[in-house]
Amino acid sequence: MFHIALKGILGRKARLILTSLAVILGTSFLAGTSVFSDTLNRTFDNLFSDVFKNVDAYVRSTQVIEAGFGLEERQRITADIVSLVEKVPGVQDASPDIQAFARIIGKDGKPLGSDGQGPPTFGSIGEEFTGALWSTAEGKWPVGPTEVAIDEASAKAGKYIIGDTVKVVAQSGSREFTLVGIASYGDVRSPGGATFALFDSVTASEFLTKPGYIDAILVSGDGSISDTKLSEAIQAALPSTAKTETLTGAQITAETQDQIGSALDFFGILLKTFSFIALGVGCFVIYNVFSISAAQRQRENALLRAIGASRKQITRAMLIEAIVVGLFGSIVGLIAGIGLSVSLSALLRAVNIDIPSGGLVVSQNTVTSTVIIGLIVTVLSAILPARRAGKVPPLAAMRATALEIAEPGRKRLYAGLLSIALGIAIIVAVVAGASNNYLGIGILFVFIGTIVLGPIIARPVALFLGRPAARFRGITGVMARQNSARNPKRTSRTASPVLIGVALVAAVTALAASIKGQIDDVFTAQFKGDYAISTDVRGFGGLSPSLAVDLNELPQVEKATGFGFLTVKIDGKGQYVTTIDPATVDGVFDIGLINAKYSDLTTDSIFLSESYSLRKNLPMESTVTITLGDATERELTVRGLYEFDELAGNFVVNRAMIAKSSVVNFDVGVYIVAKAGIPDGEVQAALDKAVKKYGQGELLTKQEYINKQSGQVNQLLGLIYGLLLLSIIIAFVGIIITLLLSVFERQRELGLLRAVGMTRSQVRTTVRWESVITSLLGAVLGIILGIGLGWIIVFTLKDQGLTSFKLPIIPTIVILVMSFIVGLFAAIYPAWRATRVNILDALNTN
Amino acid sequence: MTPQTTTIAASAISATKVYGSGDDAVYALRDVSVDFYEGQFTAIMGPSGSGKSTLMHCIAGLDELSSGSAIIDGTDLSTLKDKELTELRREKIGFVFQSYNLVPTLTANENIRLPLMLGNNKGDEVWIQKVIDTVHLQDRLTHRPSELSGGQQQRVAVARALASQPRIIFADEPTGNLDSITGAEILTFMRKAVDDLGQTIVMVTHDPVAAAYADRIIFLADGHVVNEMTEPTADRVLDLMKSIGH
């Protein structure tokens, strides 16, 4: 039987390739994403082991505030500790280290590097240090408050040469320096695409953070004692009031790698999740191809049965075929996946993330897991068709044509309805108050039910969708409509991948539309300015607080107010508090104050959101203790409550509250009200000039600002669409494969039609519309499921403040149009093959 | 049963069909010249491999001649491109095949009108109704082929061939898959189509009984026309077949 199975496979190479195609696509995405994340991981591992290569000990603060989302904010230490460290025996050299936000402004006034999601823009210390990786490629290290060195990549990008004046923006504002050195980092021009502005330690501390403060101390030993001993000796020499800890070089390397590793892991898991969805979609295609191929070989199998093959042998032969297809497909998929990861890396390079190339990492794990998963998925998808193939009665060999039995059974109807009912019951329970954790199960049941019912609903829905084609395309449309409905099992199996892909796209779209709508509403209600200066930087750097001060001095400005976020500890938990300027905030940024005035917010006061105050039982005049980043505490009195907590969060403090601490703070936005009666153009020109001076931030009108805020959702949406594209591609290929097999199966019919006068272009039209109807069938059901799914997700996010569901009408139309186009494109090759059918050959095959 | 007119509906002139070349060349047709007259029921007979099907396929525009020409209604088929040839088949030729004559997804009515619909042509409704009446299909029009018996299916096929009032109908072993009673029924319909409706029919068959329904029989062997008979009867056909070593 093994022999017969192999002969069967090799005898039909075209079918082998078609069947393998789905396996190849599914596994290539799996392999590609895993090679890509392994490569990225190793790249960053190498980068950070380089960073601390010559560092033997590392001194830093013990004070950390967990800020949620896995972010943490470590506080600074005082610069005077450096001299203490230098005196410890065994220390050869100790250098202060600062890595803070700084943005180099190019000669054209535009900041170098990217906003927001790109690699960070750093300000740091450039001094002679034996452990340093930075070296001067040109010029010398900066000395004094007017000199700067920048990394080679930035120098090139900004077209800067030694002696130029360079503008740099940092926390304390923007300043001009003389470029005295161009630095290289190990053997790369800039580490990981980040930009660096380097200063001497005093300037760095004063310009980038606060005078007298540094982030950490890098120590190189003289080799007389081990790194562990050295670290212990340093820690022992430092006063406990300094609140420091000392790590060995190996420890800080491992810790940094871990941090980056977990950030990359998240990315890796995201990629994996979507490649598994794609693989799941691929299962349908594989299942479909095996089913069709079993049906088309029914007579052959019946003949084998008639001459003595057992059921088991027929089934086994088909499973052997599945194993061969699975192995072949996943090996090709693995190779294709490696190619795919190369293009992903190229994509990163295109957006200016220059990762030091160390070659691709194709781990043993990637190879084995890809091949094993590919094999398992293929064999699992083939089990049902193989069993069905075994059940063929020997008599079928004598029958003229016995194609797939199209009548879906009653059992299917009940199973499908039961699954949907169960799913809906679970969802209703969740909506009624059960734990959100059950939601996934409910949704899964509805999906499974819909797919089980597929063959039953495929016929009526396909006939309905095909109505316009039948009406407007004459007999070709009529035939396309009938073809798409003639084998409902096949049609529904072909449409299922489309259904899943479209449902996910529709759900994400509906969710995004609701979030966008919400953001829109919130900003419209709370942002009362005419203009806003916004920055994309999140959590790292931002607008200098002096920008708002400068703007208030402009004659065209009625009022400008800046606000930022600060990480503090309240009740032992990391929290964001909003910092505002009580003198200017009124009438520009509305937080819905209740029975209070902004002027009540003195430096020893705090405003709480009404809901937080109720929840924590903190009424007016009660006391809230907050711990700042530098471990100092502040006792603040509640002097006001407010209603709108969507933007401000639960806590609002006076920005001047931190004045006497080592904590630095940026504004994330400045809201501006223009003076009445001054033409827009003049106001904008004046604001624009002020913003340009700082180099950082973008001037936006009220509407632009609101659109930008809600538009941020689009970036995430884009990423998810990109990842779902994998599934859509597989669905697309699934339609092509099914159409090709159907065309092959209908050769005689096609021959007859050509004989009685169907032109080639009419043949193409028929195949094309059949494809479109199938694709639309999946899309329509997918949209219904997806929007339902989106609604449920929005509903469960009610607690997170998402209150209104918005129907994404235009995106839905776009999805339908796209599905239409996908159908058209999928039909191109099968339609061409259909026109190539030789009339005589087709008529003579009996 | 003499031909009412001598107008030529289709003809083959020095038709030759070769498969392969050089020493391996196999001749399916060798220099065959034959005319088919309008309003006549012609049968082409011959043993298998005699070239009878090839001759029909070439004249009907389903296959190409290696040399010589096939002419339908005055048009040399070799001068036509695929699209023109397709349209010619649609408008001027009707087909009845041995089996698998109908499109399974279309109703009997749609199958009958298929060539017309493909040409976006409404056709002559009076004529179509007459054809449907002639083949007794009035109560089967909304049925799909799978719901029809073999004989009914062939009647639909004959109706389809007639519906567009083609210049000529080609039938390839139309009764090959039917029992003798149903076969006789179909042949009677075809005979009626010639006598009552004035159609031209060319039928390929190896069955002397079927051939006896024709006005004229052309005998082929080894790619040549070897004999011809008019006003045949089954017995005369059998005798002739014996005499030419069939």
Write the layout of secondary structure elements.
The complex is a heterodimer of chains A (846) and B (246).
Chain A: H1 2-11, H2 13-51, E1 57-61, E2 64-68, E3 71-74, E4 77-78, H3 81-86, E5 91-97, E6 99-105, E7 121-125, E8 134-139, E9 147-151, H4 152-157, E10 165-170, E11 173-185, E12 195-199, H5 201-208, E13 213-214, E14 216-221, H6 227-237, E15 244-248, H7 249-296, H8 298-306, H9 311-350, H10 364-390, H11 410-431, H12 439-465, H13 467-472, H14 474-486, H15 488-526, E16 531-534, H16 546-552, E17 557-570, E18 573-580, E19 593-594, E20 605-609, H17 610-615, E21 623-627, E22 633-642, E23 651-654, E24 669-674, H18 680-694, E25 698-701, H19 702-745, H20 747-755, H21 760-796, H22 809-826, H23 828-835, H24 839-844
Parallel strand pairs in A: 7-12, 9-11, 18-23, 20-22
Antiparallel strand pairs in A: 1-14, 1-15, 2-3, 4-13, 5-14, 6-7, 6-10, 8-11, 9-12, 10-11, 16-24, 16-25, 17-18, 17-21, 17-24, 19-22, 20-23, 21-22
Helix pairs in contact in A: 1-9, 2-7, 2-9, 2-10, 2-19, 7-10, 7-15, 7-19, 9-10, 11-12, 12-14, 12-15, 12-21, 14-21, 15-19, 15-21, 15-22, 19-21, 19-23, 21-22, 21-23
Chain B: E1 8-19, E2 26-37, E3 41-45, H1 52-59, E4 67-72, E5 75-76, H2 82-92, E6 93-96, H3 108-118, H4 125-134, H5 150-163, E7 168-172, H6 180-195, E8 201-204, H7 208-211, E9 216-221, E10 224-230, H8 234-243
Helix pairs in contact in B: 3-5, 4-5, 5-6
Structure report:
Helices cover 54% and strands 17% of the residues of chain A. In chain A, helix 7 runs antiparallel to helix 15, helix 7 runs parallel beside helix 19 and helix 12 crosses helix 15. The longest helix of chain A is centred in the first third of the chain and has 48 residues. Chain A is elongated and about 95 Å long. About 1% of the residues of chain A have low confidence. Among the domains of chain A are: 207 residues, no CATH class; 208 residues, no CATH class; 153 residues, no CATH class. With 846 residues, chain A is an alpha+beta fold. In chain A, a hairpin with a 2-residue loop joins strand 17 and strand 18. In chain A, strands 6-7-12-9-11-10 form a 6-stranded mixed beta barrel. Chain A has a 6-stranded mixed beta barrel with strand order 17-18-23-20-22-21. Chain B is an alpha/beta fold and 246 residues long. Chain B has a single domain, classed as 3-Layer(aba) Sandwich (Rossmann fold), CATH 3.40.50.300. Chain B is built from 8 helices and 10 strands. In chain B, the strands form 2 sheets. Chain B has a 6-stranded mixed sheet with strand order 6-7-8-3-9-10, sandwiched between helices. Chain B has a 4-stranded antiparallel sheet with strand order 2-1-4-5, with helices on one face. In chain B, helix 3 packs parallel to helix 5, helix 4 packs antiparallel against helix 5 and helix 5 packs parallel to helix 6. Chain B is globular, with a radius of gyration of 18 Å. The two termini of chain B are 26 Å apart. The mean pLDDT of chain B is 87. Chains A and B meet through helix 14, helix 20, helix 21 and helix 24 of A and helix 2 and helix 3 of B.
